[in-house]
Structure prediction request, 319 residues.
Amino acid sequence: MLETYTGKERRSTERDGTNFTEEQMEGAGIRLIKERKTIDGSGFTEGDLMRDAIKTRLGVVSATTPAPSAAPGNPPAETAKELAESQETPEFSLEQFVEAAYDKAVGALTDGRLCTPKEIPPSKEEVLAKLRTLSPEKLEVVREMKVPMLVVEPKGLSYKRFMKNLDTGTKTRNETFITDSRKKQFALQDKALGIKGDGAVAGWTIGIAEGAEELDSEYGYLRDLTAKWKKGAQATRGAVLVDHTKFALMQKQAIMSGKRLDQINWSVLSRRDNNNETVCEDGLVSGGAFLEYYDYVHFVEAYPYDLYLYARFRAVVIA
Prediction:
């Protein structure tokens, strides 16, 4: 996996010709990743020859080089697996993403004993296979995320188990704070999902969420900001907002990595029983953040008709 500059990635345009070395193509690939560019975009400055060389190396048909015909008796190259992989670009590889993110996602389940030994999460291969079903539009949302974070969420568990998971194992100094009104609404959403008591694992939700510690916020009435987000590029391509259980798992991952989400702003949360809706039964909206002064994760309510400066929208795409 290409992660850091090594000093080998000098601009390939310094040399002439078409016989590029693996080192030169690796350098060009590193720059694509670091600069978050696409190989066919205007930001690619390596020249058409390097573009064609990289595409040939990756097995992608070039716009300037005709596709080779299949040899007699051999099947065409466009297998189902290759077609799925063709949705990925050098700047984001699902296989590399899962390889790097899987242990962190599963660690968030086991560190605080959210799942029992019998409640086994899906394997790395199963997670990758599920993510390969993401639509091209949802993958575009992922590519635009600042810090994509893998979320492996057990279905059927009560919200209280997620909160207890936050406060067990690797944890903050103080326990998670939840206002009384959010406790009531979270319990109502569990009931709407048919969850009784602590619940039991009834399947798994696999998704990729925006895991940046801080996101840009916008000043305005919460109702209007939410309506604007729903009409925006992320929502219209299939993303929804994280709910309180996903937010708890994401905070757990962050805490285990020595980080915290939303220390400055706060994330607007969707309902667990309806990820397309933010307003709860009491007419209020749930929010999640981390309070550095008190050193805890907290869940509070917000008023749709009030003005807010620090609200932001943390997207997730579900496979």
User: Anything to note?
Assistant: The chain has two domains: 12-85, 103-318.
